[in-house]
Amino acid sequence: MMDHAQTLDRTDSLGGLDVDPNDIEPRDRYKLICGLVVPRPIALVTTVSEDGVVNAAPFSFFNVFSEAPPVAVLGLNSNPDGTTKDTTRNIRASGEYVIHLVSDELAEAMNICAVNFPADMSEIDMAGFTLKPSRTVTPPTIVEAPVALETRLMQIIPLSPTRNVVLGEIVRFKARPEIVDPEKLYVDIEKYRPLSRLFGNLYGRLGEVFELKRQTYDDWRETGKASRITKPKL
Questions:
Q1: Domains of the chain (ranges plus CATH)?
Q2: What is the pLDDT of residues 69-125, one digit of tens each?
Q3: Helix (H) or strand (E) holding 11
């Protein structure tokens, strides 16, 4: 059990948290990262095993980091016993996968895909998802997902025995017709309704949306004031 002196070592002069990650256990670092870096988008990733089983698994250590080329990054961990998870193994073997974004109506089905099913069982069947062929990669696309990013592996970067960072090039963007205008590429955020990951068992829906114009230096010189928060015309 932690004593009082150890507790004080984690605080600054005002009593706020101030801790070196190397001074706490990995599980506590995970707790802090998940709790403080929020909200995070959820990637529901489909892959295909060498035996032809379609795997689907959700990850919230995920984001996009480039548009030229379009790159998505996944942080993939190992199983509790140290063995490689299906998603990592399948991506390494095939080099292809599909990242689906999750809207709030898919929350419960997405959560089923987080169950540690045996490798020969498809989460797709357990969650009741429907599949359709992808356009450019072998793993199929989940029909019910609002957005799908067909992706090819660029690089797997091992960070530790339990963590890999996976860089993938998005080779095709797909979205339901009501979400993206295919001509102007505008996204209707109200119809999209993306779900976000918080921490523990907590998730979040999109709350109030506001507009805050990004200023140029000339704008700042002309007004000398910050942009005002306004209600967007969605």
A1: 40-208 (2.30.110.10)
A2: 999 999 999 887 778 889 999 999 999 999 999 999 999 999 999 998 888 889 999
A3: none
Query: What span, in angstroms and rounded, lies between the C-alpha atoms of 202 and 105?
Result: 15
- Number of Cβ atoms within 10 Å of the Cβ of 4: 7
Please, what is the Cα angle at 111 between 84 and 174, to 5 degrees?
Answer: 85
- pLDDT at residue number 234: 66
**217 in helix, strand or coil?**
helix
Using CA atoms, how far residue 1 sits from 8, 26, 159, 194, 217, in Å, is 14, 17, 30, 41, 54
The single residue listed with the structure tokens 């660029």 is 154
What pTM value is reported for the model?
Answer: 0.91
Rounded CA gap, 125 and 129, in Å?
Answer: 6
Distance CA 213, CA 225 (A): 12
> Three-state SS for 144?
coil
